[in-house]
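User: Could you walk me through two proteins back to back? I'd like the raw sequence and the structure tokens for each, with a short line separating them so I can tell where one ends and the next begins.

Assistant: Of course. Protein one, sequence then structure:
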Amino acid sequence: MSIRKFFQRLLSGPVLKMATKFSSKPNKQRVHEALSKLYQHIQSKPGKKGLLIDIDNVPQKIIIFSDLHKGNKKLSDDFAPAENNYLAALDYYNREGYTLIVLGDSEELWKFNMFTVQKHNHPSFDAEKKFLHRNALIKVFGNHDIFWNNDPFAGLQLINTYGQHIKIYEGVILKHTTNGTTINIFLTHGHQGDGQSDGNKFSAWFVAKIWAPLQAYLELNINTPAFNDILKTEHNQFMYEWSSKQENLLLVTGHTHQPVFESLTHLERLYKQLLIARRENDTLAITRLQDEIAFRRQEYRHVSEDYLHLKPSYFNSGCCCFSDGDITGIEIEKGEIRLIKWKQNGVVSERSILEKTFIDDLFK
């Protein structure tokens, strides 16, 4: 018996019990308090934990990607299948003059150390450098790359990775004014309120240095919102509830790996479109939507009971590590917000717009 298998037998049970007791299962009050605290901090002390950017005074085109989980290019690397699409997307957005916001979990530092990630991901780091050279790269940390926030050597690692100093933030607020009203678009990874990785300095250090390596060594997939539909649903719900109570605010996160647009998941939008098609007696659309719903329900079944009455205040960029290599993100340009997907068609990566709306229309 190998040493790993011995420790798997010995420790898997206790570790799973600990995970159940101290898991990252979201707690609504903790999530809401953490979001409020960060949001208020960025507004009162911009530049320390987050940036405050007026996108009207200095017009910008913005692309938001999250949850790459760059790894070692082996079977356990979730980013490997999506790398080509990510590189094609960055080439396009750099040519078009976009600002790139990487919204957390860019590097998978629970499973791999930073030296390994650097060694196997030169193409994507080089592509991101092009944005940095234009002063158009903003990097936000998540729970899987919380190393950037709590390790004393993070600054040196960043210089080694990008060739220059780069500050890592916990959030960003984009300010957009319409008809005399200022709308704040609050961007953060979405792990706020997670007891494992959003607690005090000790808990963050413990997760990064002890807990995550132990999970990786034992080859355990501990429940997180990205891999558990129940936690994913709860987490999205808590994020939505917080955003819906704020005045003149849109919340954009990652973390769950599930794209959300105007507070609706893709499956919920399909059900909404099906209702409209039935109302209009559009038989072709009804058949198409029923087939699509049947397909999507294989991967995700939950539909919110009040999905037809949700305030369009919550958005989620999805991820750049879908198993089929597709990546999703959110674009913001000239007052319009779009959910986009990059998918490989043969040897060519193609961009498609899944959803779009003008920000002003969300507040009418």
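----
Protein two, same layout:
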Amino acid sequence: MKLGLRARVAVAFAVLSLMVGGTVSLTTYAFASWYLVSQRESAALTRAALDSRAAGAAISAGLPPSEALVQIPSVGTSQPLIQVDGTWYTTGVTVPPDALPADLLSTAALDGGATQRTTVGGDPYYLVAIPTAGALYVEVFPLRDLDQILTWGGWTLVGLSLFAGLIGAIIGATAVGRLLQPVRRLGTAASRIAGGELGTRIELTGDRDLDPIAESFNDMAGAVQNRIARERRFSGNVSHELRSPITAAMGTAELLEARKDRLPEREAGLVGVLADQVRRMSKMLLDLLEISRIGSDDPPQWENADIAALCWEVVEMRGLPIDMVTGDEPIARTDARRFERIIGNLVDNANNHGGGVVGIVIEADDQRVRINVDDAGPGVDETLRERLFEPFARGNASHRTEGAGLGLAIALEQAHVLKGDLWVETSPQGGARFVAELPITPEGS
């Protein structure tokens, strides 16, 4: 799954912070470790040199090795050992003589002294061996406390590095969140315009970098709104201007049709065709007037309505059995007139273009209600499904009738006014399924 921009920036900031924090921590740990170890070894070497001289002086004065070790001042937790004529003497048992590395003793005898770090019983030690007055002096310095300090210090630096990564991720997410706020506002406004709220505009914030984008968007939205308004006015004006002559022509055609039994057969047939075409043109004008008014100056009349009962009314008005309406019986807040117009157009479309309605299925949950209108036709090609809801669009050639192609366009516009949507898919019976999806309670209703 591809991460979003905010997540990617947060991860990038976290990785960058981890790299910087890790580099600083590693450098700090390396320097601190080197400094503390070198200081401890230097102090131990100085201490061992002084103690070896004191032990050598005591042996040279004739004191036995055990008493010579007693003469060494006790400072810290170091353990002195001395070897005289192959015998070891010591004041402690922390590190036994047989645990001393053989290479340390041989190197000290040859080179006049040697040092070595070793581990005895799991604990680290620093060993200093110095020949003196016919004896070999060895002093053992425990490094466990220093090792613990370095271990805790290292884990502390690791924790701080991870904390720096977390802070970096938070900073990155916060920064990109603030940067994306104008983009989200732009996306929200675009979505509202796409949903039919053409008066949506983006508020200017005084930001000299972002306000030009907002102004360009507002200009574009205004131009789109004006153009759509002009097209609606043009369509409405044309339909209105044609209404009077069409009404007159329809009256004349109906008068002639009522008396066509007095006319010769050929003229009577022509009168019948004329009356049918005039009625078709009149219906087309009414549809054009309706589609030009949708969403302009006729706000929805919201009310709680029984969706199943409205569907029953639609099928009853068309002489269809109400038992073809099945499924849930939800109560939704909608405009009953617009809802009946949507379902009525879908039923008429199925009867005129899809071989007839075979069922209306209602599905509802807590948020939305779906009304599925299934027909008996062969379905709609996927390449035609988008264009099918455009004004004057037609379906498959085998199912075209004399309709004007405005019914589905009106249904879609009405669905948008009710804050819903309309689309076509394949019915389980194999025909076309027109789906009207509406919210149970629209926001702002």
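Residues 201 and 218 are 6 Å apart (CA to CA).

Let me know if you want the two compared in more detail.
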